[in-house]
Design brief:
With 284 residues, this protein is an alpha+beta fold. The chain has helices at residues 36-47, 60-66, 137-150, 157-173; strands spanning 12-13, 16-17, 51-52, 55-56, 71-73, 87-89, 94-98, 101-110, 113-120, 125-131, 194-198, 202-209, 212-217, 225-227, 229-232, 235-238, 248-254, 260-266, 279-281. The protein is built from 4 helices and 19 strands.
């Protein structure tokens, strides 16, 4: 159990501390809170192909099956001596070659946390990078360590990562244009209110507070709630309580009789695919 007195690295956004979020309901994707000391033991287990001390926790055959290529991935041009030529996926690991070695790696991320673990079995080398900010430096640091260990490349991976992050924030946080002459909404504001449901995600509620609409995605009501402000016609803009998400748009759609039938969400981000959700009105 993690509470305010627990010695943990708290998540950050733009160097500002953010509240710790309980992810117990999303295991196994985010159900383990670990440390460098624990991850070193786990990394050594993989470098020893399943053996820990006198115990065999999984066989070398199992190790080979897991860390053998099963799916081809895009690896770029791959025509640099000493560089990477291929990229594939094993079972739960990303695999590539680099400097003549087999590289086994995977990253992880939650709001305010980015991690990277890299294994080089031929050299018994393991690299663990843990960060507690919305940073893209974990992969850059891992790449730099590999270069320092293998060869004399002098590449500024941190600058490359920072440039990509700037492009990412520009893409995802500046996607809503300002409309000079927006068209008024077509319905009386109370008609947008109601209960809606997506077959995969669950229910959402659009409620009326005074003369302001509020959107709440009920399965994650604490984070996915926001006031709506008119944008254009039957589209409203909003910003969820989750500070790691950019501003979004909600658009109400109508059936042939002119009744509100459903709404969709336009909220581009690299993790949660809101565009797959289709919230149909259930309280006609």
């Amino acid at each position: 159990t993690i509470d305010k007195d627990t010695d943990v690295a708290l998540p950050h956004l733009n160097s500002s501390v953010q509240p710790f979020i309980n992810y117990d309901n999303s295991g196994p994707a985010a159900s383990i809170n670990s440390s460098v000391n624990d991850l070193i033991k786990w990394m050594q287990l993989w470098l020893n192909k399943g053996i820990k001390g006198n115990d065999t926790l999984f066989t070398e055959q199992t190790y080979q099956t897991i860390t053998t290529s099963h799916t081809a991935l895009s690896g770029g041009q791959g025509e640099e001596i000493g560089g990477r030529h291929f990229s594939t996926a094993g079972l739960g690991w990303f695999l590539s070659d680099y400097a003549g070695r087999k590289i086994i790696a995977h990253g992880g991320g939650l709001p305010g946390y980015i991690s990277r673990l890299t294994l080089v079995p031929e050299d018994k080398l393991g690299i663990i990078i843990l960060t507690n900010d919305d940073s893209r430096l974990a992969g850059a640091i891992s790449s730099k360590v590999l270069d320092l260990y293998f060869n004399e490349k002098d590449i500024d991976y941190a600058k490359q990562a920072n440039d990509r992050y700037k492009a990412y924030t520009k893409k995802y946080f500046s996607h809503i244009d300002t409309i000079d002459n927006p068209i008024p909404n077509t319905q009386e504001i109370e008609k947008y209110a109601g209960v809606y449901e997506d077959k995969m995600y669950g229910r959402a509620e659009v409620s009326l507070e005074g003369n302001v609409l509020r959107l709440t995605l009920l399965p994650a009501a604490k984070l996915f709630t926001a006031k709506l402000s008119h944008y254009n016609q039957d589209t409203f803009r909003f910003h969820f309580n989750d500070p790691f998400l950019p501003e979004g748009l909600i658009t109400f759609h109508f059936n042939s009789r002119g009744n509100i039938e459903k709404f969709t969400i336009d909220l581009p981000n690299p993790d949660f695919h809101f565009y797959n959700l289709n919230f149909v009105k259930v309280d006609w």
